[in-house]
Amino acid sequence: MMYPGKRMRHVVAGAGLALLVGGTVPATAQDAVLLTSTVPGYVPGMLVGTGERLVLPEGAGATLLFRSGEVLRLHGPYDGPLALPPGDNPGGAVAALVAAFRVQGVDATVIGGTRTTTVPHRQRGLDEVVVDPQRSGTYCVERSAAVWIARPADDGARYTLRRKGTTRTLAWPSAAERIEWPDGMTIEDGDRYEMMMDGVARATVTFRTLDDRAGSAGQWIAEGVMRGCGEQFNGPLRHLARSVAPPELYLTSDRGRSPVYRVGDPVALTVQSDADGYLYCVDIRKGRDAVPLFPAGAVDGAQIHAAVPVAIPGHRSKTQMRAAAKGTEEVRCWLADRDISPELPHALIASPAARLPDQIAGEIDSLFTGIGGSSMARAALRISVE
After folding, report:
1. Nearest-5° angle of CA 250, CA 255, CA 260?
2. DSSP one-letter string for 68-137
3. Do you find a cis peptide bond into 85, omega within 30 degrees of 0?
4. Rounded Cα gap, residues 307 and 182, in angstroms
5. 236: part of which helix (H) or strand (E)?
6. How far apart are CA 71 and CA 109, in angstroms?
7. What angle do CA 367, 335, 310 make, to 5 degrees?
8. Closest Cα to residue 341, out of 312, 319, 311, 374?
9. What is the pTM of this model?
């Protein structure tokens, strides 16, 4: 039972609540949360269950966070279920899963350190839970949390809170942006409340309880997301991803990862990162000529966002790439964690599809590796032209 409004002490009711105290959650591969991804269509925060099909194209990667707090990094190609091998797994479920992947030739690695990693309390964001009375949602609360109700945009209406025939009228003082959760309307795990506006149900609010003594950031985040509180855990999920998984890039074409084109054919590219950053791509022809592809002429410059595919050409970049002379071309892309455009030659970011000076073309890789104060991810795609 929770006594809301102030800093609260409450007893969480209901058998079956998994307490997130270090060591009390068994290491299973039954459920996982997608932590990072360079796979188009796979978004961080997605849930992956046992037996569910996992498709990782060649060169793409995904990082999975399990209930145990363990983190598994995978690189394609792989197309199959997320499933444990039969029998006992004395080394742990995730370790057994890694071994099974490796038998199939899949690059799989357990990332260590997450069992003891902690998220700073100020970043957990559950000290104060603010409910939106105009939108249905699931809210995770901890035993020390204070629960509030935000002022609605149309506060001229009459709002009431209802649960199992019990109602409370909600009223916001003129200068108040929020009010305390009403006395007597207790919160227990799984409770559902209706927000009524002028007698009509406007939203349904569901509460899930978490133990605030969690010693593992991974366990705490996984449990919160799996309990349906993904929006509250977006920040901690990104924080954990940055701390355990270095940024990666995935680069492919409309003809796959080993494309073959004829001279003059249009080439369509897709680039995706598993972290926010700044993208730079160049087409290297016959190992010497270079043409900038991105961000030259791109809408909103070089900045891209995690798990959001960038198409070239696309709505952000109209640059049309065509297969040049017979032989091979190589598209190279770099992802920096800050905007390094001012430190690059102007020709590299100014004019799309304009051939770069020979000196710049010959120093492409060193131009990027020589920039200090920035972490850099790199991807390349070799193209055969007939």
Report:
1. 110
2. TS-EEEEES-EEEE--PPSS--TT-HHHHHHHHHHHTT-EEEEEPSTTT----HHHH--SEEEE-TTS-E
3. no
4. 40
5. helix 234-244
6. 8
7. 125
8. 374
9. 0.84
Q: What is the pLDDT of residues 48-70, one digit of tens each?
A: 988 889 999 999 999 999 988 89
pLDDT of residue 28: 43
CATH code: domain of residue 130: 2.60.40
Query: Does residue 351 share a domain with residue 310?
Result: yes
Percentages helix, strand, coil for the chain (3-state, rounded to 5) are 15, 35, 50
Beta-bridge mates of residue 55: 79
Angle at 145 between CA 140 and CA 151, to 5 degrees: 80
SS (H, E, C) 243-297: HHCCCCEEEEECCECCCEECCCCEECEEEEECCCEEEEEEEEECCCEEEEEECCC
Residues 205 and 131 in one domain: yes
214: tokens are: 């969690």
Q: Going by C-beta distance under 8 Å and a sequence separation of 6 or more, which residues neighbour residue 360?
A: 290, 345, 347, 348, 367
Within a domain: 189? yes
Main-chain dihedrals φ then ψ at residue 203, nearest 5 degrees = -155, 155
385 alpha carbon, distance to own chain's centre: 36
Helix or strand holding residue 193 (H, E): strand 192-197
- Do residues 140 and 134 make contact, with C-beta atoms less than 8 angstroms apart? no
Angle at 246 between CA 244 and CA 251, to 5 degrees: 140
Does pLDDT of 364 surpass 70? Answer: yes
In a domain? residue 183: yes
Q: Which of 104, 110, 367, 86 is nearest to 244 (CA)?
A: 110
* Cα→Cα distances 99→32, 36, 57, 297, Å: 17, 21, 20, 46
| 103 and 174 housed in the same domain | no
Strand 376-385 and strand 260-261: pairing? Answer: parallel
Is it the case that residue 13 has pLDDT exceeding 90? Answer: no
CA distance 218 to 215: 9
